[in-house]
Predict the 3D structure of the following.
Amino acid sequence: MSCKIKKFAALLGAGLLAVLAASGIGLQDASAQFLDNLFPKETPPARREVPASREVAQYSFAPIVRKAAPAVVNVYVQRRVQTFSSPFASDPFFRQFFGDAFGQPSERIQSSLGSGVIVSADGIVVTNTHVIRGRGETEIRVALADKREFDAKVLTQDDKTDIAILKIENGDHQFPTLELEDSDTLEVGDMVLAIGNPFGVGQTVTSGIVSALARSEIGNSDSQVFIQTDAAINPGNSGGALVDMSGKLVGINTMIFSQSGGSQGIGFAIPSNLVRLYVQGAAEGRKVERPWLGARLETVTRDMAEALGLDRIAGAVVARVSDAGPAARAGLLAGDVVVSVDGFEVGDARAVQYRLTTRGIGSKVKVGVIRHGQPQTVELTLVAAPQPGRDDVRNLAGQHPLDGARVSNVLPGIADELGVDEATGVIVVSVRRSSTAARLGFQPGDVIVEVNQHKIESVSDLDALLGTRQRMWLVAVRRGDKVFNLQVPG
């Protein structure tokens, strides 16, 4: 080693010792610290302690259930119905000829049950229409989770959306409630709980995730769009709550897809945003009106998408625009493809109607369309359909094939609602259950175009012809794109 290197090492050593001395670290301590850094010891395991609570010990839905379950009720329905000894005894045609030969009707009690959700402290309850619907005098009783029971009355019910609003009677106006969440905040994969009374065994909670949103293919009405979940839903859950992880109501359980009658992990719930409209309407004593578009929409098919040059099979094609209707005033044209409403994508015609309905009458919405391959936006003001006049709608009764049918002149609002082209004839608006018209197969949306080879132009024409006695009735009915001829003895 040269003299220069020895001198440098001596100076470095002296300097290091000076630094260690200044910092209070001895040579032995410094050596130990150096070895520890070079060969670090294993960190001792953290001390395990008994969990402070059940929630810490395991992930649990119990806090959510404690918050939501008290507002979920059982709905018991009893109906007094009449039965006959013969299946033909209730038919007015047979009774006309045979009188009481079939014997007097007997009365029996028919019971059913479902679930419901209290959404206001004064006792407003949401359930499904199919839970409370039925013939005969109906008594409804609501049982709370704390075992209290009350009578309830129907404030409003809607067959198309399957939403019914009840009011608990003689309550203390201090009922537990569930807050309605904005169902548009849900995403596929979110955790949800279904609470109800399946099979009448008592209140039950099941868990799952949101499997899909905006399901519209499985409903019977163009107003129905559903949240799909794999949380177990069984008979008796209808009208119960679907809640999110904050314990708020995001949907009303309404149906299942099943081949066995039990849950197969495919359940459907009505979104809370649609439920909110009916709750508000019932509280204010008004009927919920669907916006009138003034246009006929058809769901985009594969052939339509290819013909229109669309890159996706989604949306709704404007097939027809009524003169002076809201769609015409907004600038919608036949051939436009509606793809969004207020920024929400719409997959089909039902989704468009749902979005318009939840926006409500009086609102202005931005409708995104594809026109000649280019995106456009139009602003649409939502208004109610024109009300039919006194002579536009009539309930038919008598010894004729349309006994029990409610019919209307072809008006723009009714035609749009029932998906009927504006043409000559008379529209069947509704059909009373077990009536002659129902047994013959008449359906809402059917258009009566001829009776005994007389062309029908209005309700007055139809009523006048049905008032005559006929040995044989020949009725021409247009259903969709087809015309059927129905022949019935007079």
